[in-house]
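Q: what sequence does this backbone want?
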């Protein structure tokens, strides 16, 4: 597992703990519970976008190499 996956799981567990703590009383306010939930979602979305961005860059490089190959093939014909 990557560090980002571990952080996401820790934040998710923390969110569940705070939600249950809020439901059963003597807890932080609703805004604080929602803040932890929002931070978890934002971190998860940021991690997934970063992974997609790296995959997109690899795909872009592959297409540029493919275009170069086609140009070389056309000039040889």
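A:
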């Amino acid at each position: 597992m990557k560090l980002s996956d571990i952080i996401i799981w820790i934040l998710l567990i923390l969110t569940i703990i705070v939600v249950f703590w809020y439901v059963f009383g003597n807890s932080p306010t609703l805004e604080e519970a929602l803040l932890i939930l929002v931070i978890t979602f934002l971190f998860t979305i940021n991690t997934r976008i970063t992974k997609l961005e790296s995959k997109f860059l690899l795909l872009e490089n592959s297409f540029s190499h493919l275009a170069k190959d086609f140009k070389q093939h056309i000039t040889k014909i």
